[in-house]
Amino acid sequence: MASSSSIHARLALVALLSATTFYCIHKYRRLKRLKTLSLSPSTRRGKIFFISETGTSKSLAQRLHKLLESNGIAFDLVDPTSYEPEDLPKETLAIFVASTWDGGKPPKDGEFLVDWLSESAEDFRVGSLLLSGCRFGVFGVGSRAYGEEFNAVAKEMSRRMVGLGGAEMVPLGEGDVDDGELDRMFQEWCDGGYKIIGSHSGVKICRWTKSQLRGRGGCYKHSFYGIESHRCMETTPSLACANKCVFCWRHHTNPVGKSWQWKMDDPKEIVKGALDLHTKMIKQMKGVPGVTPEKLQEGLTPRHCALSLVGEPIMYPEINALVDELHGKRISTFLVTNAQFPEKILMMKPITQLYVSVDAATKESLKAIDRPLFADFWERFIDSLKALQEKQQRTVYQALSVKSNGEYEVACEHAHSCCVLLGRTDKFKVDGKWFTWIDYEKFHDLVASGEPFTSRDYMAETPSWAVYGAEEGGFDPEQLRYKKERHHHPKPQAVVA
Ligand SMILES: Cc1cc2nc3c(=O)[nH]c(=O)nc-3n(C[C@H](O)[C@H](O)[C@H](O)COP(=O)(O)O)c2cc1C
């Protein structure tokens, strides 16, 4: 007969095994559910979560919610106490405004959500792809007075979201309630770095502008054409677009539409607003290491305008008046269109350089990459390429590539180091090698035939490329060209590792 101590030991073992089994089943079910959810992300509305104790973060979240709503962008404002964190893998866009309290802890209303993120990130069975369908941004509300714990919750959330595969679409914002700059910082964070002009335009000081102000390198326009990036203004008269491209840096927080449906601002006001804001941003570079007074002074009189910031600039019905306004100020114009408005390309007045974005080589891949609103998007794309051919001006086919876990590879490495195909002149990189797309006529023929094409068919050695000067007064508004254009003949560079 078994002794009472061995019965106790057996009972304890059975209890332990049942508890372990129960725990494993529970975890397995949770895991299974999470995996299923993560494999079938739905196209849900974006969410703005507020994690707040005394209401500061909540009111910022409410402000952002209102701003998006007034731009026709529907988001849900979410109180974490009424949200099931296990639904996070279904989200495609999540914005968190979160404060930090005593000991670096979240407010009690956000504890469950924050703990869920930390636990999931540490659970090796959950995996690092759980939130791979979710783009997110975190803005922290805290106080620097708390030293190491400053914005600890926001930092933790951002780290955990990345650990679970989320794509951080805007760098972590760190608001300090005590420095008097919280509102301004939040606004800048919401703008994603660009400033809004009137009701539908934007301007941004691009990183190359900053770089060249500091005496460093410029963008490809500098390498190819001699255009000084610190004298270039990046702006758009339309934040709206007819595509929802997978690589879009706005991550679908900008309005979309097939036609202009918004109140229209005056083109003169847009140019004035863009120049005012641009010069204000340039002035803020004063005192930054490397920025000399001369460069700063030059930066205050932009000579070039890149109409390519975000959205689709030619959707703006007064685009011709807008470019006239810029040319009248001796500012050259570089406009990039997304190949969905061929009729607008045809009615555009000549500008300095007109680009059409070539994001894919087949109907299927264009649909997958650009996610166009138009049903006849492919016909529009082909017609846009043809329309470019008819323009009596300098044109560019700009081939973008999309880096998406290796799923899409279009023409070059990734979306924002775009490759510019200037007629038969430019070069681009694929698989670490440089190529040039030279056969302009052949490309036109192929495009005109409507056959799918691959960019690889159009790569060859670099014979030459044009460089045109951007000296003071060098741009001729009559000719829409630079007076001192010249041609540059570098050695062929077919393969550069
Ligand atoms: C008792 C107390 C503890 C705090 N601890 C922190 C902290 O550890 N880290 C931090 O960045 N901010 C800390 N703060 C600052 C709060 O985050 C700040 O007051 C914020 O405005 C609260 O935002 P909320 O109203 O959205 O909760 C603390 C504030 C108080 C009153």
Please tell me about this protein's structure.
With 497 residues, the chain is of the alpha/beta class. The chain has two domains: 34-191, Rossmann fold (3-Layer(aba) Sandwich), CATH 3.40.50; 195-488, TIM Barrel. It is 34% helix and 18% strand. The protein has 14 helices and 21 strands. An eight-stranded mixed β-sheet has the order 7-8-9-10-11-12-13-14, with helices on one face. Strands 1, 2, 3, 4, 5 and 6 form a six-stranded parallel β-sheet that branches. Strand 11, helix 11 (342-347) and strand 12 (353-358) form a beta-alpha-beta unit. The longest helix is centred in the N-terminal third of the chain and has 36 residues, at 4-39. The radius of gyration is 27 Å and the shape is globular. The model is unreliable at 13-42, 401-444, 450-473 and 486-497 (pLDDT under 50). The site of flavin mononucleotide (FMN) has 21 residues, from helix 2 and strand 4.
List the defining traits of the structure above.
2 domains; about 20% strand; Rossmann fold; binds flavin mononucleotide; alpha/beta; eight-stranded mixed beta sheet; disordered C terminus; globular
In short:
This protein is α/β, with parallel strands linked by helices. Helices cover 34% and strands 18% of the residues. The site of flavin mononucleotide has 21 residues, from helix 2 and strand 4.
